[in-house]
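Thread title: Can someone regenerate the structure for this chain?

I was given the following input by a collaborator and told the matching structure tokens would be attached. They weren't. Posting the sequence so someone can regenerate them.
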Amino acid sequence: MTTRKGTQRGPLMKARSKRKNSILLGSLIVSLCGLYTILQLDNLQNFQVCDEVKDHTELASSQADDQLIELGLTPREIVSMRNIRTNSHRKLHGRFLHITDIHPDRFYEENASIDNLCHPDNEQSKHQNNRGKDQLSSLAPRFGKAMSGCDAPVDLMEYTLKWINETLRDHIDFVIWTGDNIRHDNDRQIPRTESQIFEMNEIVSGKFRDIFENKRTADPRDFDIEIVPSLGNNDVFPHNMFSLGPTLQTREMFKIWDVFIPQEQRRWFDRGVTYLKEVIPGKLAVISINTLYLYKANPLVDNCNSKKEPGYQLLLWLGYTLEELRQRNMKVWLSGHVPPILKNFDKSCYDKFTLWTHEYRDIIVGGVYGHMNMDHFIPIDGEQARRDLETLEDETFWFDELNEKQKPLDIYNYAEAASEAHMMGAKPVNKVSYMTKVKEEYYETIQKELKLAYTQENIYDEEEEEITESDDSIDLLLGKKKKKKGNKRKKGRNPTKDEIYEKYSIVNIAGSVIPTFNPSFRIWEYNISGINEETSINQNYQPWDEFFADLEVKIDNELSSSDPNENSMNIMKGKKGGKKKPDKTIPRRKPSEYPLGPAYVEQLFSPTKFIEYYADLDQINKDYLSLLQDGKDKNRAADEAFKFQVEYTSDDKPYSMKSLLVKDFLNVAVELCDDSTEWTTFLDRAFISSGYSDD
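Best answer:
Regenerated them for you:
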């Protein structure tokens, strides 16, 4: 009802209006109460759902941790890391994979004769059906046979990578892959060809790319997990022989590895197949070194003294690159195929490379290599390398001052190295003898040094305790100074333990996928605590493309020098009466203001643990045949039978390593000398639990 203008409501109308308002207010109160009750019930349900989600999350997390523990991995918090280049984020687990020496052989044939390198033989095929059970042990099984001298069947490669993809891919940050992706050239009936080598390199590279690429983008260079490949001595034609580029082989390798190689380094890669890759941008890098230029079994290189030598040029590049990483406050892993030990490298190349490793110990985390198919480590002495370089006599490495001609290559040393390289593809022999030499030449040397240092430090401590105030007064009168701990070591005094630890670096030599013994690979864990904290990184450095463009000019200028003295080494006397010029392939001593790096002191990127995986081929092949007998098809039987398992971890007994600093490896070396039981275990692990012994 409307109210006319100027009229007033009567008492009845006011009462009705008041009652109506009261009803509306009451209804509103009831509604609000009901709504409140409903909301409370909903909240209660929501809380219950959140609790259920939380329970499921905790359960899933617990199950994930159990799976990691079963794989030998350490459960840890995943870190989200911002890429300073792209401003995107990625997850870091603090782990990487090192895999090497796959050697897939497309001519490997199941049930072929092992005596025929597991390759088919026409005569054998005619009589194959007549073989009895007693002859089965001489036939090639599907996944390969340890210690048989055969290369890896393609199935071994396929199922190894499949297992890594399904089991480990989502728990690692990057992959270091140190070469030899081709069969050995050991069958005269089926000689290798250059086209076969390129083709198999491309096949294996494609498999790595397919596993670790980012499938959420069309960019072929976008990887969830970065891959850093290195060139092996069997990845080239003929094997071991590789000259300075540009050549057909360097260009083909770039085409094959195009998506792995930073574009700004293409020109240098074309010259030397060596490059740097940031695996955690702005913080951690890996250098892939073409060790064939340092390898004494390569007949196309001589030493690392002449500017014309590929090894000399590689070391020039390495020196400038390490210094740039130092200025950027980055850390770096070194990687390559042939381990940098005196057994493998020319003496001048070994000394110089070892010295670079030593003088940049503030940034180098470690070095991982392949080639030798045995799981072991060798400590190399940087201070000894410097002494050897400084004391070499002119006639050891001399050059014709006009023609820069070198003395003829030591044919015996080359032949011995080439023979050993060839034996890498054969049935293993004298490997216990080799490991015994490692123990005698390296481990026992360290044992003597550390025991002498320990004895000396004890005597020194006792002498310090005996000094009295009167002794101090007498010393002052006589002009003598009291000795203090931490003072620079006097000439003639034996080094302390810490000085011994600091002068060494570790060459980590990996087991291989090829069944020289049992197939194996390794996961390394490293410290990522505090990786997102602000650091004193200099943001004013030039972009990498500009750095490498400038570096190429620097190297060309250095190599084009016509001064004959600059073609001599710093360690040589040079011309009589002439001024000695510095050899830029020999590093200066590490400046004292740079602290020790992740290999020596626990810090960001220090390695903390490794997990060695292996495939027990005897058991796998038995399980496979048993499943076939049960009626399962080949593919299903292979899926169920093939698996890798943890062989051991670095913190396993009997020689547990709490961390993986240089001092931990040296202390293990001493233990192995002192305890025969530990040495036996070490040998078993070196031969990948295959039961190998020298017969």
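Residues 76-120+136-396+429-450+497-560+590-687 form a domain with the Purple Acid Phosphatase; chain A, domain 2 fold (CATH 3.60.21.10).
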